[in-house]
Design a protein that fits this description.
This protein is α/β, with parallel strands linked by helices. It is about 40% helix and about 10% strand. It is built from 15 helices and 11 strands.
Length: about 450
């Protein structure tokens, strides 16, 4: 803070020349005027200080401290922004020639290295516990499916919209960071590299390219996971792991992992089941022997994670299976609910003017909080009329077009368009427009002032 400079000019006084014609009475009158003027100034000064004391509980003993605190409050922002232009010359883990970003080479003492980096970059320390970097990606080549690249672009836009609204960073990768770790295994090398590239972030959030946010207001409940010191969050159910022994007991297409040494060690163990391992074929056989519903022979990341949990139940202390809300949800179950959800949310906004008030996109989270009391009876997960947090188009493969044969490809592509427009309406609303038809991406209408109370519904 720049304080104004206070300058004082020295008053120069010259002795008054005595006049030979000045009489004694006039001299006394002049001295009396000076005395009264000085007394009046003194009275005004005392009165001002007394008035200030009454209005501010003035205490002479703490006045200096109060002034200091006032200046400190003016100079220090309540939520200072990170300094993106400051990287001191101090040695950090980045200066270690042995540092490798490769998934094959382990990282040691990562917690200490992150802590040291934050020490040298103090502007990143406030809020570090809740800082998230979302990571996603796709293949390096153009899609075989004619509309695949267009769909992936819209999926990516959806993630960018969500991150912008909630203040998260995002990294999109479209190259293999390890030549052997392809397909579903490609995510692990990217996640490790993201941890090293973002020591300021506590969480790395992997979201598959075919998963999208369909509740743009909902924010990750990080305190829910931090409270019990969980380090890895995936959507899943213990019963399906330990009783049913199903490889679909969880979904590894969306996971939240803490940026810490435990995660580095766990990913090393997890990735050892992948194609970079000399025992890759063996791991495929082991997985199929345990999970009878696994149809294909290759070892995959989802079966690998499920197997690790199955063999060591103590891992549930660090790995949390989220099943209370759609941390990710199966699209075929969710898609038919969009129309009913839209109607329910429209009714809520018609009843509560606070929810339909126009507002800046930057304050969207507040309106999500306003909406929560109205959603207490909505339920969560399957059968709920709450917006699903993430809709995941598992089995559709928009880029290759090699969809699961249990449903037609056209069902996938039409479903994606509907889901994308369902989410996009929540974003466009802040810009004054909506898609009136979720199956028509080309058409939008301008929202009226009190939309949707006097809208087209």
């Amino acid at each position: 803070m720049v304080t104004p400079e206070l300058s004082q000019s020295k008053s120069q006084f010259s002795p008054m020349a005595k006049s030979s014609v000045r009489t004694k009475p006039s001299s006394c009158f002049s001295d009396g005027s000076l005395y009264l003027g000085a007394a009046l100034l003194a009275f005004l000064l005392v009165w001002s200080l007394w008035s200030y004391a009454l209005s501010h509980n003035f205490d002479p003993k703490t006045s200096a401290k109060s002034v200091a605190n006032t200046h400190a409050h003016e100079c220090v922002q309540e939520n200072p922004e990170v300094n993106l232009h400051y990287d001191p010359p101090d040695q950090t883990f980045y200066d270690d020639q042995e540092l490798s970003y490769s998934i094959e080479k382990p990282i040691k003492n990562w917690d200490e290295k992150r802590k040291e980096w934050l020490k040298h970059h103090p502007s990143f320390a406030p809020g570090a516990r809740d800082r998230v970097v979302l990571v996603t990606g796709s293949q390096p080549k153009p899609c075989k499916n004619p509309i695949g690249d267009h769909l992936l672009l819209r999926f990516f836009k959806n993630k960018v919209d969500y991150c912008r609204i909630h203040g998260y960073d995002i990294f999109y990768n479209n190259v293999l960071l390890h030549p052997k770790m392809h397909s579903y295994w490609a995510k692990l090398p990217v996640v490790k590299a993201a941890m090293l590239a973002h020591p300021e972030a506590e969480w790395i959030w992997w979201v598959d390219s075919d998963a999208m946010f369909t509740d743009m207001e909902y924010k990750l409940p990080l305190q829910r996971y931090d409270y019990k010191k969980h380090n890895l969050i995936v959507h899943g159910w213990e019963k399906l792991i330990y009783e049913k022994k199903s490889w679909t007991a969880l979904n590894a297409g969306v996971f939240l992992i803490r940026n810490c040494q435990w995660s580095m060690d766990f990913m090393e163990k997890w990735s050892s089941m992948g194609p970079m391992s000399s025992e890759y074929e063996k791991w495929g056989e082991i997985q199929r022997s345990v999970f009878k519903d696994k149809l294909f022979p290759e070892s995959d990341d989802q079966s690998g994670l499920t197997y690790l949990l199955y063999k060591d139940k103590s891992l549930t202390e660090k790995i949390y299976l989220e099943g209370e809300y759609y941390f990710e949800g199966y699209w075929a179950d969710i898609l038919p609910t969009y129309d009913n959800i839209t109607e329910k949310y429209t009714e809520l906004e018609k009843e509560d003017g606070k929810l339909r008030r126009r507002h800046a996109e930057k304050v969207s989270e507040q309106y999500g909080v306003f909406r929560e009391p109205h959603l207490r009876e909505a339920g969560n997960g399957k059968g709920s009329w709450r917006r699903p947090f993430i809709t995941h188009f598992t089995g559709c493969q928009p880029c290759s077009g090699d969809h699961n044969q249990m449903y037609e490809g056209e069902t996938c592509w039409t479903g994606m368009v509907k889901a994308l427009n369902f989410a996009d309406n929540q974003v466009l609303r802040k810009y004054g427009f909506v898609h009136p038809d979720l199956l028509d991406s080309n058409t939008v209408t301008e929202t009226s002032f009190d939309y949707p109370d006097d809208g087209p519904w």
